[in-house]
């Protein structure tokens, strides 16, 4: 029997996801028509004999209640529960704190998945690879562009066995372009190693720091656990060739949305909008919530998601929403307006002939540098933002409840 843990963090994390996380906790933000962590759940539900998924974080207890009710209907074969840490315990501290819950029923192994990623989740491949070696952990790895590798946990593995020999979290200089994706498969026996890592941390604290600070129960999966595992022939990598993205900044929801929509286009086209007689012009992979109203004159796509109750009004020369736009609950979008490379928050309004525009995301970075100045590549409008007629908003982050009567470029509008 297998289980899984999804690490969701808490309200003090996910700050880079503002302004969108001001209205919904990041793990529940909709990407390609489903909350971020529902994509995790739908991949876990495909694994035979996976009985339980524990969502571990330090949000209030009621935050995941509706999601868990929804999961009980959509994924009846798995039991989904939320376990709340009494404080932020770190990416391994919560797993150790709830070890009895994880071990109940004697699972042979359990997945641990970061909430803030979008991925093809090749979980069966990880299970198959794990059964072939004697390690305690198989982690999912992927190659990233060399110049971006030091933003992630980097690893060096033996090519013939995939055994990880060296793991460094965000190294200062280049060591490898193979990085950890935040998806782990652990043997249940790993808890003795986690206990040893916690004891090491406490001993180090007693030797060095006990006069200056109180000991804490936080434990980091990457630095405190994976590193010692990599020194003892216990850590292996399973490298994926398929898509993987981190969802850190609000703008990173856009490439994640595109990746999931493209995945649907290849394997589940019934989830996507189809071009019909009298329907809007649909280009490429597009998701439209059944309760959204989209005028037939609109041109939409590729890689656009339109959320519940959005109203895309009538266009004189056609409205255009294109290229990795992600829309949620737009109150209304008026004639002739255009949205590109942007996320538009709940109950916002885009006026006639207005443009809300970002720039394409380059690799894993969601910023662009022009004339030495760094700005957001994706434009984000928070909740209830109103963009007046003929206004252009380019490469901006706009906080909720703003009324924009002038055009802005490369700004954070508070
Ligand atoms: P940064 O790039 O510095 O944000 O680090 P990272 O990419 O390694 O991410 P981080 O380790 O902060 O978080 C990975 C995942 O674990 C995210 O989904 C977080 O929400 C979650 N997480 C982080 N800290 C905690 C914690 O204390 N408790 C729980 N339950 N989850 C956490």
TrEMBL record:
Its EC number is 2.7.7.13. GO terms for molecular function: GTP binding; mannose-1-phosphate guanylyltransferase (GTP) activity. It is an enzyme of class 2 (transferase). Residues 282-411 form the Mannose-1-phosphate guanyltransferase C-terminal domain. It comes from the Eukaryota. It holds the Pfam family GMPPB_C. SUPFAM superfamilies: Nucleotide-diphospho-sugar transferases, Trimeric LpxA-like enzymes. Pathway: Nucleotide-sugar biosynthesis; GDP-alpha-D-mannose biosynthesis; GDP-alpha-D-mannose from alpha-D-mannose 1-phosphate (GTP route): step 1/1. Residues 3-207 form the Nucleotidyl transferase domain. It catalyses: alpha-D-mannose 1-phosphate + GTP + H(+) = GDP-alpha-D-mannose + diphosphate. Belongs to the transferase hexapeptide repeat family. This is mannose-1-phosphate guanylyltransferase. It comes from Mortierella isabellina (Filamentous fungus).
């Amino acid at each position: 029997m297998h289980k899984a843990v999804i690490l969701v963090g808490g309200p003090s994390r996910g700050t880079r996801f503002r302004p969108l996380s001001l209205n919904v906790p990041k793990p529940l933000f909709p990407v390609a028509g489903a909350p971020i962590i529902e994509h995790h759940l739908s991949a876990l539900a495909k694994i035979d004999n996976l009985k339980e998924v524990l969502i571990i974080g330090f949000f209030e207890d009621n935050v995941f209640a509706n999601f868990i009710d929804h999961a009980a209907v959509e994924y009846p074969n798995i039991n989904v529960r939320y376990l709340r840490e009494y404080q932020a315990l770190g990416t391994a501290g919560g797993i150790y704190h709830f070890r009895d819950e994880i071990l109940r029923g004697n699972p042979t192994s359990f997945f641990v998945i970061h909430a803030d990623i979008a991925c093809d989740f090749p979980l069966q491949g990880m299970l198959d690879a794990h059964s072939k070696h004697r390690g305690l952990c198989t982690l999912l790895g992927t190659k990233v562009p060399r110049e971006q590798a030091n933003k992630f946990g980097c690893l060096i593995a033996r090519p013939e066995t995939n055994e990880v020999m060296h793991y460094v979290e965000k190294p200062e200089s280049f060591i490898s372009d193979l990085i950890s994706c935040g998806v782990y498969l652990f043997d249940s026996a790993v808890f003795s190693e986690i206990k040893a890592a916690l004891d090491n941390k406490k001993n180090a604290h007693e030797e060095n720091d006990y006069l200056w600070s109180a000991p804490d129960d936080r434990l980091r999966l990457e630095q405190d656990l994976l590193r010692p595992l990599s020194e003892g022939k216990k850590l292996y990598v399973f490298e994926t060739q398929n898509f993987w993205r981190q969802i850190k900044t609000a703008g990173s929801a856009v490439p994640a949305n595109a990746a999931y929509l493209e995945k649907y286009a290849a394997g589940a086209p019934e989830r996507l909008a189809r071009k019909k007689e009298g329907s809007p012009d649909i280009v490429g992979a597009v998701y439209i919530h059944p309760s959204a109203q989209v005028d037939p004159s609109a041109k939409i796509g590729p890689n656009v998601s339109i959320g519940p109750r959005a109203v895309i009004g009538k266009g004189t020369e056609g409205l255009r929403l294109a290229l990795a736009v992600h829309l949620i609950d737009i109150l209304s979008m008026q004639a002739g307006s255009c949205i590109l490379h942007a996320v538009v928050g709940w109950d916002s309004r885009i006026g006639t002939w207005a443009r809300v525009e970002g720039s394409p995301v380059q690799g894993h970075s969601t910023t662009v540098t022009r004339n030495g100045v760094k700005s957001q590549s994706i434009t984000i409008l928070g909740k209830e933002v109103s963009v007046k007629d003929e206004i252009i908003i380019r490469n901006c982050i706009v906080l909720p409840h703003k009324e924009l009567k002038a055009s802005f470029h490369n700004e954070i509008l508070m």
